[in-house]
Amino acid sequence: MGTVALNVSFALTQPWTVLFGPSGSGKTTVLRTIAGFVRPDFGRVVYGTDVLVNRGTGVFVPAHERPVRSAGQAARLFPHMSVRTNVLFGSGWYSKPDEGLELADQVLELFHLGGFAKRMPRDLSGGERQRVSIARTVVSAVTFGGPGTALLLLDEPFSGLDVAMRDELLAELRDWLRRWKTPVLSVTHDVGEAFQLGAEVIKIADGRVVQQGPAGEVLAMERRRLMEQLQAGGMSLEA
Amino acid sequence: MDFEALWLTLRLAGCTTAILLVAGLPLSWWIASGHGARRALVQAVVALPLVLPPTVLGYYLLVAMGPLTAPGRFLMRMFGHPLAFSFSGLLVGSALYSLPFAVQPLVAGFGAVDRGYVEAAEGLGSSPWRTFWSVVLPMSRASLLTSLVLAFTHTVGEFGVVLMLGGNIPGATRTLSISLYDLVQDGNYGAANRTALVLLGFAMVALLAIYLLPSLRKMDGRQADVVR
Asked: Is the pTM higher than 0.95?
């Protein structure tokens, strides 16, 4: 991977925050920087009182030691493990395996994967693998064994799903994570998704934060921008 | 058939393979998980026995194990006796000579595991150690088998290094390949043929083990499990 020019600064203040922007704007790079897979040349990443990155003082906490749990765009399910074993892989409940198992089965039901526990990844469709991948990360985040709660990072988590499944899952997952008090930062290029989540939206373009606010405000701005583009092109829409 | 030589050969190959498994796994993972001049140098040193005449390697090991060098004196203190012309000496020589046969398949196997799986594991809080044991190694099972089989059979077939380091001491350093050489020198072609067939059999079984276990290849990291 080459050099990516980013100049971003933001704070997470809501239960669910969405990084929104066009392809190539730097959303995934921001997520990977917070997760610990990208080492920035400058800047800081702080979560609560934990300094995860401080280039000024040379601090860089490795990904696996951060109070952060992340799922990338691609569903990298471990092919030699069943669905249930995959979902339990990141569980922090080592001392209570039965409860961990119960939670894993609950999460599989939440993702409409009840009955899939013993299947192998090679037997799943693309959408099913995507859901297992997110379920795995969710279990890891809510069972985080360190002090405080882990931040859940999701990169385009719903993009591989059909619209009906996505709509159903979105609401259920949001409410479930709220009960567990697990904050979420997700990436999407679909502002409608952010609106459905009732999330705070941070819009990134060309590696910079250009707007931050409730999804409704950002949606309104996007709509105005689109209208202006259309009018500049000699077209108009009835509002 | 020299059963004493057969047993010695199997002991030597088994112990050498065990040593190479313990030393080879972390070395191979270190080579496969990064880049740079240091790794290239280590890879070149590991690969040296592939291109060196076995007698050259045997000669230098003989000198290094002797009382005139610091490593030789250290090894003598550790083992309590000179290593040259002993089973322990053969073990050291065999481990070095078969090192590339153990390491290179592992490096290739570990390198073929998509980095995305390592990141997926680390993103779930898995330590590098756990990620290696629970994710990378199982996904490289075919390469691990190839590494073990090649290390074992290559040791079984050694001649030049064994002759230089071990001499030809019955029960101590006379392996099956040395025994075969002696039988031919003595004109005992019947026994030589039987011994050669045993060595050929080892090689064939080893190759069949590698090529007839395709189900393990399904667990290789080469098979992507990627949605997009």
From this structure: no
